[in-house]
# Entry
Amino acid sequence: MFLSLPTLTVLIPLVSLAGLLYSASVEENFPQGCTSTTSLCFYSLLLPVTIPVYVFFHLWTWMGIKLFRHN
# Structure
């Protein structure tokens, strides 16, 4: 079963924060070592930035489709 949107808006940032804290505790040189794309740290910093942008543009597209159909 799919999770509802309010559940996902709470769950995804918490999972992203947990990944970020995990990377901060595991990596020796945390901020400087995050520049390589082979590092887990890079993706733990990329995920909290990517998800809100994706959600914003997904909702923007959905709203545009709704407005286009009703006018």
User: Anything to note?
Assistant: The two ends are 34 Å apart (CA to CA).
